[in-house]
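Rotation project, supervised by the postdoc (A.L.). Task for the rotation student: set up a whole-complex structure prediction and record inputs and outputs verbatim in this book. Inputs entered:
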Amino acid sequence: MFDKNAKPSPQRQRQLDRYKQLVERLSPNSDMGKGLFRAYWVGGAICAFGQFLQEAGKMWLGMNNTAASTFCSTVLVLLTALLTGIGVWDKIGQYAGAGAFVPITGFANAMVSPAIEFRREGLVLGLGAKLFTIAGPVLVWGISTSVVVGIIYAIWPW
Amino acid sequence: MQGTIELRHRPRLCMGAAIAGKKEGEGPLGKGYDQIIEDDLFGEESWEKAECRFFYTAADTCIRKAGLTHQQVDVMLGGDLLNQITSASMAARELKIPFLGLYGACSTMAESLCIGAMLVDAGHVRTALCAASSHFCSAERQYRFPLEYGNQRTPTAQWTVTGSGASLLSSDERLPTIARCTHVTIGRVTDLGIADANNMGAAMAPAAADTLTRHFADTCRSPADYDLIITGDLGRVGHDILMELMKERGHPLIFERYMDCGLQVFSPEQDVHAGGSGCGCSAIVLNSHILARLKAGELQRVLFMATGALLSTTTCQQGETIPGIAHAIVLEGDASCSGTC
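Outputs recorded:
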């Protein structure tokens, strides 16, 4: 194993391949149809609720477009944080998968759950250091990508 | 072949204790546990301290049930799943029994029994306590995600058991005898290239097959010589793979005489996907259900083999495959007595 260029012997490779096939045959796969159905209906319901919040903001609270969309995000984040805190959101996440984490609700859950979990190790080295363990990678690569796209957009002759 | 040791003095397993969490208590074996702790935190302020208290309580209950004091136990062997096996060592700090900390991932219960039985058999110690613990919440935060994070589990994923089990081995004839330890087979680290940390059963099954095959060759026995062959936490997937591997190796397991603790500890309705896992899984099932059946004479000879996946989050992220290990120990009811080869 310490020789970086060594390949497994043909016999060992056959054993590994055969075992891989056996594992694939005996391991149950995720039920795609059920997963998609759940993700779409929960995700759709969250988005519809978000749209309702925006329209309600504009219609009844006298907000303009920008204020209404901020209002929508804030309420969704607040509700998710609350549901995470009382231990309900992980069940919704388990049920709906991407339907729960693709909307902004997923981001709120990804921030609040480490905050609860690592609070016990202290405010600085616990909560402070671990707050971004889940959301961090998304932020790093999300922001990096947006910078790259922004540069391309700025120099492209449109 | 190598690795099987016959214990000539057949050291006795005198007592067992199992402390389980709430979800385990609601499982099919719930009635057998010595104590069911409804509060996941066990009155402590962190999951790690709670797990330590599970370990302490199992050890303490086992010693007291045998009618001994902590000072009368010569050595304690045990471990858990956390980094630096803190639950076991911090419990040992309170118990004040000479302590050897072990890490064998989920195989720790069998590993501690194997070493304990050899120490007692050789006459180095009179009484040895073997224990292991795991806690769903402390394992989740170390190996996976924060508890409240809403991620989805794959169908092959397993649920870490909250609980701790302890067994007392002794050569003292005044103590009650539940079973006798006759052989141990020490596992070899086996890796057939599984890198998916959500499919531990598949990673550990080859190690289980290796230990079983060597055990049968060394002892000239076959699966039919055992009333029950018990694996630790292979779960649904690992269980099926082991059946298949043993068939290929010419020692097909008898379905009715093979059980996996991970499949027994929870019922399918408890939404645990492929079954239970963790050191505590085999520890609580052995020290409640299996010992009770040995004591009642329902089982005469069993092979207890706990399996462990020797991975860490670091090795996983670096793309290493998962090495597995399985240690086995033969327990015989006190009445039965038969020779080998």
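Student's summary: Chain A touches chain B at residues 15-16, 19-20, 22-23, 26-30, 35, 84-85, 87, 89-94, 97, 100-101, 106, 109-110, 112-114, 116-118, 120, 133-134 (CB under 8 Å).
Supervisor addendum: Chain A has one domain: 32-155.
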